[in-house]
Design brief:
Length: 308
């Protein structure tokens, strides 16, 4: 008489994820209490020079030239004369940054709009439109990033020689910043767009949407994080640029804030106390732009994902 075993066959246990991997160890170290303390210390040390610059910008000229900013706490003395001189000063030696501030806005805002808009459209075409030579064009755009900026300044200036007065004298610097910003912008946005699901574009094509509508209705909302990041990078780079401004602008009617800041110390460097207040005046707009776009950047990260 045979018996049938009722025991269930042994089931091999499912493999458990390795908890002691290199990535796990690194993650634990970076999120530990020690790492947090070290990060706070680094942030404080990194902020000290900026804090010292701010304190110096509020001190009288004689105190700035004779004592260090840390001595402010033992002998406090505050004044707004430095800011008044560099912003609203009427003498030839004063800063007169108000007009240069407007010039910086007139240069930076259009240049950022041109470069980011063209980079987004070019990246979309190189990512999702099929045409002959597409990959070679992307390789060419990518290789343009290794060309030093200084090598292209004079040839580009010679090409734009007859058009420097377009746009009230700002055309040349707009064109230069757009050209120099496109390679990096196209590369960054192309990498972001190429990761979008192909099903989205196929569904849009089935619904009758053309390339322009697909780009406007589908792609742009999904690439908000990349557009915000590129806008921040471009704005900060163009606003803080000095080399391109020196080459492609002429005269106080077109030169930006950075050019005037370089001249604030005087021909012999004896008026360097103005640089402290002038530096903080130049930081106002970049800080506003960064803090404003950071909110949209985080919102785009949360809302831009594709859920199945």
């Amino acid at each position: 008489m045979s018996t049938v075993s009722t025991d269930a066959p042994a089931v091999a246990p499912l493999p458990q994820p390795a908890t002691d991997s290199m990535a796990g160890r690194v993650r634990r170290k970076l999120t530990s209490r020690t790492a947090s303390v070290v990060s706070i210390i680094i942030a404080i040390v990194w902020t000290i020079p900026t804090f010292g610059l701010f304190v110096s910008s509020l001190r009288p000229e004689n105190d700035i030239k004779t004592t260090g900013w840390w001595q402010f706490f033992s002998h406090p003395s505050l004044t707004l004369d430095n800011y008044n001189e560099v912003v609203f000063g009427t003498s030839a030696s004063s800063g007169q940054l108000a007009s240069y501030f407007i010039n910086s806005l007139a240069i930076t805002v259009p240049a950022v709009v041109f470069s980011v808009s063209l980079a987004a459209m070019a990246a979309y075409a190189l990512s999702w439109l099929n045409f002959r030579g597409r990959d070679w064009i992307f390789i060419a755009v990518f290789t343009l990033q290794i060309v030093p900026l200084q090598m292209a300044l004079i040839p580009l200036l010679q090409i734009l020689g007859d058009f420097t007065e377009w746009g009230g004298g700002f055309f040349a610097v707009w064109f230069a910043h757009t050209c120099f910003g496109l390679p990096l912008g196209v590369f960054l946005l192309h990498n972001f767009m190429s990761e979008l699901p192909k099903d989205l574009f196929e569904a849009a094509k089935v619904d009758g949407a053309g390339p322009a509508m697909t780009f406007r209705r589908i792609v742009l909302p999904l690439i908000t994080p990349a557009l915000a990041s590129l806008t921040i990078f471009q704005f900060l780079w163009i606003w803080n640029d000095l080399l391109v401004a020196l080459v492609f602008t002429s005269g106080p009617e077109t030169r930006p804030l950075t050019v005037r800041l370089a001249e604030l110390a005087g021909t012999r460097g004896n008026d360097w106390q103005r640089l402290t207040s002038g530096a903080f005046v130049s930081m106002i707009i970049p800080l506003i732009v960064f803090l404003s776009l950071q909110r949209y950047f985080v919102r785009g990260l949360l809302a831009g994902g594709v859920k199945g």
